[in-house]
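worker-03 picked up job from queue 'complexes'. Input manifest follows; two sequence lines, order preserved.
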Amino acid sequence: MKLTDGETRMLDGREGKAKQKAMELLVRYGEALGAERFVDTTNVAGVPGQSSVFLDKHYAGRKTEAHGAYDTLFSLFDLDSDEIVDVPQVATHSCHLQGGVDPENWQVLGATPKAAQVARDSEAGAVDKGVKILKTCTPYLAGNVPKLGEHCAWMESSAVVYCNSVLGARTNTEGRESTSAAMLTAKIPDFGFHRDEHRRGTHAVEVAVEVDSLMDWGMLGYFVGDVVQERIPVLTGRLGKPDLVRYKHFGAAAASSGGVEMYHIVGVTPEAPTARAAFGGNEPVETFRYDAAARRRVYETLNSAARDPNVDYVMLGCPHAALEQIEEACRLLAGRKISGNCRLWIFTSRAVKQQADALGYTKVVRDAGGHVLTDTCSAIGQALPPGTKVAALDSAKQVHYLPAIMGIQAWFGSTADCIDAALNGRWNGALR
Amino acid sequence: MSESEIITLRGRKVVGGIAEGEALVTRQTISGWGGVNPMQGAVIETRHELRGVSFKDKVLVFPGAKGSSGWSVCFHLARLAGTAPKAMVFNEMTTKVALGAVVMRVPSVTDLDRNPLDVIETGDWVVVNGDLGYVEVHKQASAARRA
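worker-03 finished. Artifact:
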């Protein structure tokens, strides 16, 4: 890789050991990618120094008088260094994505006191380094909205696809180690989505059936990810105007069934004023058609891990719920009580939760017998209500992951189907 | 047909080092977080052809990475848990697989002159030379394959 003088100074250790270790990792990573240089990044989102019971135990023997648990973990794991270094303040705007435990409601989640303590300690360590504690997979709903063209280094596939496609900012799907190193150096390899030529559409998707509801946007995303895998789809056809929540569910689904990091919707997303602009001179490699039959197949695929109609858990908020989604759940609950055989957990960011508290939504959910929780979700936190066998979910992403991770059945449907299941303890969802 | 037909594929280094082992081949992309269990070193994705299969100490041959940005962490944890593959051979370069290979610290190559998924079969003995960017495939004896 060709390094600037400033980058060479960091790599040589003239800016301190931690930046040296961070640059070493970024150079190894850049060379693995085949990148030739770095870009300066001004917006990093990761999970710096986030411990877990496993990591806490794994590195317990490595802590020394000179370095606390946070710097030890950050050095050995985040920077993949063999040496423990003093971790300085972050060098650029940096935020923390989702975590594993709701700090206020960890007991609801069934977390152990040890896990809650490990999470609190990690958070205190990150705060100490100047990291903004957004604790969400939706930083763009919690005050971090990058500008058009801004070079970012973000983790979280659903946030990455939103960042590139909806905001027109530029990020690859970074990982924990690369984002932590970028926080200290403000550098990330110039590869992939940082470059104009890599942002152009490669595959066409013609939507031949009306896609308007949130559930339909999620299913379309799941279809698109499956057919294009990690390529860049350009969508045209019978698409209603997506709002923030629809973009969120569409992108999260496409990044789960496939590896979609960017998409274009002609006439809608910022880098696709026309199909010609979206493809930027590329000929579509292939054209896929999403019709009523494809829609039915997606619905059946998403429901293939479910058999038992008795639902004992409903989870909403993947990716983390927007305020209007919590409002909708409240409207559907309408003063009723959820079934005694069922639990309802709605996950969101701390920022949105504060609004939900102020607007009385949290109370409505609680009065119905449910919980509004923050920081995590059932998949990330690996937390289910005790005895859960069958879940109902309104997120194609969550239904993709949760049965595999937790070994349960899960139904996929609309938010209304899910709330209905919470109220009755039975799945009555259908493709309408 | 000799018992040890050797085929060499040439590509480029992703991570240096040399390792050899039995190939585990899949034509499906691999999801890290939520797709594999790092403590068991096994694929867990619901509809994956390798579901329940362990990649510990294997040479993992696959098209590339998909899914969550937790790919590198997942395989990094596999390294700590002692369940990582010995080496990786893949087709599609992405940030997920690059960072995962780097922090797993296993010899890895890509951009090969023939599609490794067409040449390598599960059970073949494979030498991955990350330093020089090539893969040596020792095909299973045909008699052994019939058995």
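worker-03 released lock.
Residues 6-146 of chain B form a domain with the Glucose Oxidase; domain 1 fold (CATH 3.50.30.10).
The first helix of chain B runs from residue 71 to 81.
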